[in-house]
Structure formats: C-alpha cells, structure tokens
Amino acid sequence: MTQNRTAITDLDTPALLVDLDIMAANIARAAAECRANAIAWRPHIKGQKTPEIVKQEIAAGAIGATCAKLGEAEIMAQAGITDLLIANQIVGPQKIARLIALLNRADVKVACDSAANATALGAAAHAAGKTLGVLIEVNTGMNRAGTEPGAPSLALARHIAATPGLKLRGVMGWEAHTVAMPDQAEKQTAIAAAIARLVATANAIREAGIDCDIVSCGGTGSFPYCARQPGVTEIQAGGLIFSDELYRTRFGLDFPQALTLLATVTSRPTPTRIILDAGKKAMSSDAAPPRPLGLQTSKPVALSAEHATVILDAPSATPAVGDKVQFVVGYSDTTVHLHERIHAHRGGHVEAAWPVQARGRIA
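-> structure tokens emitted (363 positions)
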C-alpha cells in the first residue's frame, strides 16, 4: 500500500515531519503515567498548535488542552476541543471580550494573579450573564508571573470568590526553575518542594471554606516527577510527545524524538562543509541547536536566516547537492509555529499533512 503514498524523501523542503509511531508511543506513555498516579493530563499545546494532534492525546486519555494564548484556545474550541485552560493572564477589554465570547463554545478556565484582573474579568462575565472559571497562578519559585504562596494567594482567592461572574476553580503553577538541574535527585527534591508550596496554598484556600478543586502544574522538563507529587490533580506536560533536543540534552527527558525537519543540500563548498535550505525561518536554535541525523559532526549546526551550515568531522563526498537530511528539532515550541503544516509519516511514507491551525495566534 505504501507505493501510493508520498515518501518523505520526495517532499519539497524545508518540511516539518512527525513520526506517527514514535509520537503515539510518547502519548500513550504520558497518559499511562498520569493514570498510574490517578491524575488528569491536560497537555500544553503551545508547541503543538495542531488540533489533530490534540485529538490523539484526548483519545489516549487527556481531559482537554492547556493553551498559552487566547487565540490558541479559540482554534481548539473551533475544532471541538472544549475543556480548555489558558495558563496565562488575559488582560485588556478586547481580549476579555473575546474570552467571554468563547464561553459560548467551551469550558474555558483562565489564570489570574491580581485582584485588578479578577475584577475586570468578573465585570465582563457578569455583564454577559456568564460565569468564568479562574485558576490562581502561584509563584512556586520560577519568579515570573504568579502570586506568592500562602496568604497573598488566599487573599486573591477571597477576592475572586466574592466577585460576581467568577468561580474559583483552583490553582496552578510552573516549576520551571527546576527543569535544567543536572542531578536527578536534586531535581526531584526541588520539584517536590515547589509543588508542595502550590498544594499547601490550595489546602489553605479550602480551609478558608472556598472551593479549590484543581491543582495544575508540571511540564515536560519536570516529567515524570511532577505527576507523582501528592495533592496534584492534573499536569500540563505537552512537549514530551515530540521530545526535542532541548528536552533530551538539557532536561534529561528519556522519550524518543518524534519531530524532525527535512532539508535539502544546496551547496558543498568544501568536503567538510554542507549547506542546506533550512535556516532560522524553518527551525530554531534559541534553546538548543537542531541535530542532523546520519552525519558525523561534533560542532553544532549554524543557522542563518535561510541556511543551515553543517561541518563534518571528516571530509566526505556525501551527502551531495540535492540529497536530503533530517534534523531532530532543537526546540519544538519555537519551530512548529514556523510551518503551515506537519507531515505525519509512518515507515518513511506520509499519511497526512496536518495544518498548523494555531500558528500566528500570538494574541
């Protein structure tokens, strides 16, 4: 049957590829880990941006999706994915109006870390006759957004509970400051400490008589330790389905890598230098450099706007001009959005070309 399908080597380049068998195994493994720990999986889709992939995660047991941006949530709802968490603050009248309108199509929950934002959200929801679910974002040590654990978060919970149009659904945090720790025992201890602050905050809110059902945390860089912490109800790890170079080399993830970028050799100026047609506009190197497959090279690939430069460890006539090379993606979150479609393949043959429907949805 494969003779009627396009071989990946016949694709025009640059082309973003995902291996269906590897991705399916990664999805199944993440879902199984969550089931084993009696928690829900709500994968973050900021690096996926593709409803077809999210639907596969839900089919495997995920409860919905975590989005970074309101625009991503709108695309997911349009595709019929309706249990959504926007793990970000939605601020300003234009965005808040869109958020409230989205409640007509989906069960949307949103992060909040200030009374001023809560008041604005509640006023818009109440005026529309809606109730918006809110999760308090708690700073568990990353020191980005989020209220401080304990009393400050409890004060915000009281404000949300008293605000018409809002319902406090829970708390969320992101233990990103732990993910690059090289010592796994130290990393596990740090993750446990960060999540314990989040869980303790949720318990303080409950003890004050306020409902706090959801405790959401965890990313690919803290998986699987985040899934094993007492008190957690759901985790947001999403990048593990692709398992790029960042997650493997810096964060210690042992999932096989599913996402690659196919490029064509356009120039061989010397026996050790290879120039290809995929640069920064096709794959990112901000967090980790892409890795060429099948080539002996100890130097990281260099990317310019439209070119990749690979330096071989020893002279070679191959690959020649016109040959194609796959690169394991350096960081999926800053690569997928560069492409209009993902070519889903199995056994080296394309089975589907999925539109990256949420690309460009940065607002």
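The radius of gyration is 22 Å.
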